[in-house]
Write a structure and sequence with these properties.
Order of helices and strands of chain B: HHEEHHHHHHHHHHHHHHHHHHHHH
Distance between the termini of chain A: 103 Å
Oligomer: heterodimer
Structural class of chain A: mainly alpha
Strand order of the largest sheet of chain A: 1-2
Strand order of the largest sheet of chain B: 1-2
Radius of gyration of chain A: 31 Å
Strand content of chain A: under 5%
Strand content of chain B: under 5%
Number of helices of chain A: 31
Largest sheet of chain B: 2 strands, antiparallel
Number of helices of chain B: 23
Largest sheet of chain A: 2 strands, antiparallel
Helix content of chain B: over 70%
Chain lengths: 722, 511
């Protein structure tokens, strides 16, 4: 039996730690802050693993119970409660494990940052929110967790709040997510309407009530209610899991410190959308239209966002585009009803992508906060642990046979291949070609960073401190330039400030960011005043890398059997017979080794090798070629470098459009018409009328006498003549 | 049944008024004592109001703690007080907010402080009276009397354009309520039976009225309440009044006085004129939705912090009127089924209480900044977090609450109203749902420009973080916002019988 107190401890331990580190951060100090938060998330991880063991080994029954009643309105009971089955237990374990690694890593990464305690408070709060999301047994709490992780993400992207690019990025992230949430809330409202409940179990039991209904949204067009509801819910997932066209916030979220890029913007939060759709599989299965929609969106994201990774030079942004693309892969799996495949890829991706981000972070500290890969190279020699763990992560990402990513991605591609729902062919080509692109940009990163000549000496040859400070500023400026202009809601003034202030970069926040303490021990200032000399990171950084490298290598082979083709998700995921592609593939399942052998006879693996080889040729063998190619295909290059102009278009249409509309409504509607014409106008009318009437009361007796005589004569005339 | 045998509502109403009179008599010379008199009076009032909650019978829709005395025998008008599930939470809210206003003005108001506090104390008593009046004449007198202290607060302690603002405020609201008076008198005359007429609101609700009579009365009420809420397009007095009002005035205006309009719809319009409400609900719903969307965009482009929050208030109050008037459309669409109607009204009520807390808190936040920098312009700030980290944490919290974040009270009402309106019409939910985006956009953009970023100028560089007094006010409000967001069930439980009774009442035609 899984007791409720265990589950409560799992969620409350990180919350209490967050509150302690957040409110009493000054009192408990830096060591105190990281001790309590690591203890909190450590407890959560230990107990999550224990819960997983109870479910899998001891055969404990699934938990679905209420903690308290949030409210009752109109007969609909909304509760806070836990549903712990194999799906949530897997998510809980992955989330707390990655979170624990990131907590430890942060000790090293943020050691010079004045906001140390605040950072630990945020990431612990995030862990709490994410656990509430995955452990929920109802839509209301799901939405709570959903929004709470969004807020923490907002706070963390804007962690260095004096950087204009950071507070631009966090507002953008929140608002784009809100567009998704808008759809999500409508979906939840639809669920509540048709089933009269927000509780998962009740809703899934009553799903026939949704299917039986149609909705008329536009006059004359009847839509299946289930399709509308599922698409609305999926719009929420598009926001959170950064699917085209709501993907624009994720690359900018790299403004946040690297540990949270790993935890929030790669391993956990962004996969919440995938998790949600899988959780709702009993609903999505009933609408093939919704599934096709999911499929096409996912495929588009998987392929086209991967393309953008080809041309970026910021180490974190390349990994970010790869995350977008991989999230697209997961969404594709959802679209072909291979929910287990999506979740399996979610899990392996959580490990190897967190690893890649943390390794990138290790490079960034090793390079003294340089993020531009053009200024790196040859780091293999200086940072061996980071190099080898990165290599493992990269191999997993490209799907090198035997690694965890291989199993999840290959199974996923097979599943798309086997599917027959509308859009499956398009999706297949997207994910198929995506393999090549993934391999190319991943190894491009590895080669540019760790191999080749040591380019970092070029910029720092003069050895002055000023030169040393320049790269981060340049990187920040570059990042900003690439992602569009001005604030979300553009203001000419804000725009100029932006550029002026970007120059301060990291140095700025170190001084202004603190609340009086630790001046001069800025984020950027490691005390290295000479030329850049890369160094391997301390053990608190490399240990998490090693811990994540292990599952990146092996977890796929171990778990693919039960998760994809076994009964791990029995009773959790629902797949209708005609969509059951995984079951179809599973008929040929003879263990992981045969799976590898089989895959070696299929094209995707060779496509990955080809991408790897091309990256080697262009970035190791002939490093002069990329510039030539970029010049030859400048149209395409610019299209990728400008990220298909999404940012520019959104900025012009939505941001400027909203401000324009608001100004028009205000100036014309409120000021001119309502206040000007109606309110002050009637005041003037009254004033004018009184002015006229006042003349009647002139105070002169003869005026009155005259008026009386006229009046009297008119009356008399009327009386006489009628 | 309630176990309180003493006239608790009269005490709640007259205690602050007596305190206010005492303040005037004390004068400015002994203001140190006077401040404590004000604080203790309001704190005791709040303490007593919690007895209302704890002794409230949650199983009945009937009026509770009823008091009745003959007031004006000639008109057969009574001094009759009592509360149900609508009035009681609003009274507690009033009693909760006023002591905070007193604390917030503690060392800030130096111009005629005794009269300043007196105005707020008297206003509190009158507002509690409005919420508890069971006699329409008593209600009307208190409703109008309430304008006087607010008129004085803005007119004396207000900003440079206070005269324009007060006159606009007064005329707008007064014109609306005069029409209400006409219909109250009309109904009074209709109740006459054997020479005995009545101003009892309960009598009005029972009064059989023809459709044309109802339409006339409905429009008159709409004029009064729509101005008070305020609904688009009669909202333009609010931004002006807020901008000119002192912090305390803004807080009371936003937190309590706007609720009079929402309360009026629930107490008068819906039960007295159900058929007219049925006929004209499209008007109220359209104006509400226009309010949510149109005002959302207008709020986005404001340069003045107080104006922005004022516009955000109007948008949020749109949910109150939307939620209140869903019943009829629900019945039309779902062939007589009223499921969802109670949820809409629940949402409207929760939204009123929540907006009282959040808008109050937002105006306090602006007040904290204004007291230091003496500017309300957004562009005068930037990077406040660098010098006021604790304040910034509160501002972000309340900003999130204003954007309707779950776990804050701001989410509950909006969520319920969106859920209910989806049942009526997809597009209602769609337009109302836009507030998720717009609310976040105008609030968080404000937060970005004021709180985040590098230190913008020397004023910001010289800021000092919140003092103990400000911390107390903001902290108490933060606890309330989070408490109501994390566990709204008690509030819903208190209202349930009243809401269900109202739904039942308005679904029965008077024709």
């Amino acid at each position: 039996m899984i007791s409720q107190s265990v589950l409560l401890t799992i969620v409350l331990a990180p919350l209490l730690a967050a509150i302690l580190a957040g409110i009493a951060g000054k009192v408990i100090g830096r060591a105190g802050a990281h001790t309590v938060t690591i203890a909190g998330v450590g407890i959560a991880f230990g107990l999550s693993a224990y819960v997983l063991k109870l479910l899998l080994v001891d055969g404990a029954p699934i938990v679905n119970q209420t903690v308290y009643t949030w409210l009752v309105s109109d007969g609909i009971r909304m509760e806070v409660g836990f549903l712990v089955d194999n799906l949530s237990a897997m998510m809980m374990t992955v989330v707390t494990f990655v979170s624990l690694c990131v907590h430890v890593y942060t000790i090293g990464y943020m050691k010079d940052d004045p906001g140390y305690q605040r950072f630990f408070a945020y990431i612990s709060l995030f862990t709490f929110s994410m656990l509430m999301l995955v452990m929920s047994n109802n839509f209301m709490q799901l939405f709570f967790g959903w929004e709470a992780v969004g807020v923490v993400s907002y706070l963390l992207i804007g962690f260095w709040y004096t950087r204009p690019s950071a507070i631009f990025a966090n507002l953008k992230a929140f608002l784009v997510n809100r567009v998704g949430d808008f759809g999500f809330v409508l979906g939840i409202a639809g669920v509540a309407y048709y089933t009269g409940s927000l509780d998962y179990a009740t809703v899934f039991n009553a799903r026939d009530a949704i299917v039986a209904n149609t909705m008329t949204i536009f006059p004359g067009v009847e839509w299946q209610a289930i399709t509308v509801v599922c698409i609305c819910l999926f719009v929420g997932a598009m926001g959170k899991s950064a699917q085209v066209p709501l993907h624009v916030w994720l690359p900018d979220s790299m403004e946040g410190p690297t540990p949270i890029s790993a935890l929030i913007h790669a391993a956990t939060m962004v996969t919440a959308g995938i998790f949600m759709v899988a959780r709702m599989s009993p609903l999505f299965e009933l609408s093939e239209t919704a599934l096709s929609f999911v499929l096409v969106i996912g495929a588009t994201t998987a392929f086209f966002m991967g393309l953008l990774g080809l041309v970026n030079n910021d180490i974190k942004r390349v990994v970010a585009y790869s995350t977008l693309s991989q999230l697209g892969y997961m969404t594709v799996a959802l679209g072909v009803s291979a929910y287990a495949g999506a979740l399996f890829h979610l899990m392996t991706h959580a490990f190897f992508k967190a690893l890649l981000f943390l390794a990138a972070g290790s490079v960034i500290i090793g390079m003294h906060h340089e993020q531009d890969m053009r200024k790196m190279g040859g780091l293999k020699k200086y940072m061996p642990i980071t190099y080898w763990t990165s290599a493992i992560g990269t191999l997993a990402l490209i799907g090198f046979p035997g690694t965890s990513g291989f199993f999840s991605k290959d199974a996923l591609i097979e599943a798309v291949h086997a599917s027959h729902i509308p859009g499956a062919t398009y999706a297949y080509w997207c994910v198929f070609l995506g393999v090549f692109i993934t391999a190319f940009y991943s190894f491009r990163l590895v080669f540019m960073t760790f191999h080749g000549p040591e380019r970092f000496r070029e910029g720092a040859a003069h050895g002055s401190h000023d030169d040393h400070a320049a790269p981060p500023a340049a990187a920040a400026g570059h990042g900003h330039d690439a992602h569009g202009h001005g604030a979300v809601v553009a203001h000419a003034g804000a725009h100029d400030d932006h550029h002026a202030a970007v120059g301060h970069g990291h140095d700025d926040h170190a001084k202004a960011g603190d609340h009086g303490a630790a001046h001069g021990t800025g984020h950027d200032d490691h005390g290295h005043h000479g030329p850049v000399e890369p160094h391997e990171s301390p053990w608190v950084v490399t240990l998490p890398l090693i811990l994540l490298a292990i599952p990146s290598l092996f977890i796929g082979a171990v778990t693919i059997g039960p998760m994809l083709f076994g009964d791990y998700f029995n009773g959790v995921l629902f797949v209708s017979e005609e969509h059951n592609v995984l079951g179809h593939i599973g008929e040929e399942w003879h263990g992981p080794f045969q799976f590898i052998v089989h895959a070696m006879m299929q094209p995707p693996v060779y496509l990955a090798f080809a991408g790897w080889a091309l990256a080697w040729f262009l970035y190791v063998k002939r490093p002069d070629l990329p510039a030539v190619i970029a010049g030859k295909f400048s149209v395409l290059y610019n299209l990728f470098a400008k990220k298909f102009y999404f940012d520019e278009i959104y900025q012009a249409v939505f941001a400027k459009g909203s401000v324009g509309l608001g100004t028009a409504l205000w100036r014309v509607g409120d000021v001119a018409i309502i206040d000007g014409a109606a309110v002050n106008g009637s005041a003037r009318a009254v004033g004018w009328l009184s002015g006229v009437m006042r003349r009647l009361q002139s105070g002169y007796l003869y005026h009155y006498a005259f008026a009386m005589i006229i009046g009297l004569s008119v009356l008399l005339a009327w009386y006489v003549l009628r | 049944m309630s176990t309180i045998t003493w006239p608790i509502l009269s005490v709640l109403m007259w205690l602050p008024i007596a305190g206010g009179v005492a303040m005037i008599l004390l004068g400015d010379k002994s203001i140190a004592l006077g401040r404590w008199v004000a604080l203790i009076t309001t704190a005791v009032t709040f303490g007593i109001s919690t007895l209302l909650w704890t002794n409230f019978d949650t199983t009945t829709a009937a009026m509770q703690f009823v008091e009745e005395r003959t007031w004006i025998p000639f008109f057969n008008s009574y001094y009759a007080l009592g509360v149900d599930g609508f009035a009681m939470p609003l009274i507690v809210l009033t009693a909760f907010i006023t002591p905070l206003v007193v604390i917030a003005g503690w060392s800030v108001i130096d111009k005629r402080p005794a009269q300043y506090y007196a105005a707020f104390l008297i206003l509190e008593g009158l507002m509690i009276g409005v919420f508890s009046a069971l006699d329409a004449l008593l209600f009307y007198v208190l409703w109008e009397a309430m304008l006087i202290p607010m008129f004085i607060i803005i007119g004396i302690w207000g900003g440079p354009r206070r005269v324009y603002a007060t006159i606009k405020f007064f005329l707008y609201t007064f014109l609306g309520s005069v029409l209400m008076l006409v219909s109250l008198i009309y109904m009074y005359l209709q109740t006459c039976d054997a020479g005995q007429c009545s101003y009892a609101i309960a009598e009005f609700q029972r009064l059989p009225l023809g459709l044309n009579e109802q339409l006339f009365i409905f429009v008159a009420f709409l004029a009064a309440f729509a101005v008070k809420v305020p609904m688009w397009p009669v909202h333009t007095w609010l931004p002006d009044a807020h901008v000119e009002a002192p912090t305390g005035g803004s807080v009371i205006l936003a937190a309590i006085m706007l609720k009079m309009g929402g309360y009026g719809f629930l107490r008068f319009s819906l039960p007295i004129t159900p058929d007219a409400s049925d006929t004209l609900d499209w008007l109220v719903i359209s104006l509400s939705l226009i309010g949510v969307v149109y005002i959302g965009f207008v709020a986005l482009v404001q340069n003045d912090m107080k104006k922005l929050i004022a516009y955000s208030s109007i948008a949020h109050m749109g949910f109150v009127t939307l939620g209140s008037f869903l019943t009829f459309e629900l019945m039309r669409v779902n062939s007589g089924d009223t499921t969802g109607a109670a949820m809409g009204i629940d949402g409207a009520m929760v939204q009123m209480i929540s907006h009282g807390l959040i808008s109050g808190a937002m105006f306090f936040c602006v007040g904290v900044l204004y007291d230091r920098v003496h500017s309300r312009e957004i562009s005068a700030y930037g990077g406040v977090v660098n010098t006021m980290p604790i304040f910034a944490a509160f501002m972000v919290l309340f900003g999130m609450a204003n954007s309707g974040l779950p776990a804050t009270s701001g989410f509950v009402g909006e969520f319920l109203v969106i859920l209910a309106s989806f049942r009526a019409d997809f597009w209602y939910a769609f337009l109302a749902g836009l507030t998720l985006i717009l609310g976040a956009a105008y609030t968080l953009w404000l937060v970005k420009r004021v709180v985040f970023g590098p230190v913008a100028n020397h004023h910001v560089a010289e800021l000092t973080d919140v003092n103990g007094r400000e911390l107390l006010v903001l902290g108490v409000l933060a606890l309330a916002v989070l408490g109501l967001g994390l566990w709204p069930a008690p509030l819903l439980d208190v209202m349930r019988p009243t809401v269900e009774n109202l739904v039942q009442q308005i679904t029965v035609s008077k024709l």
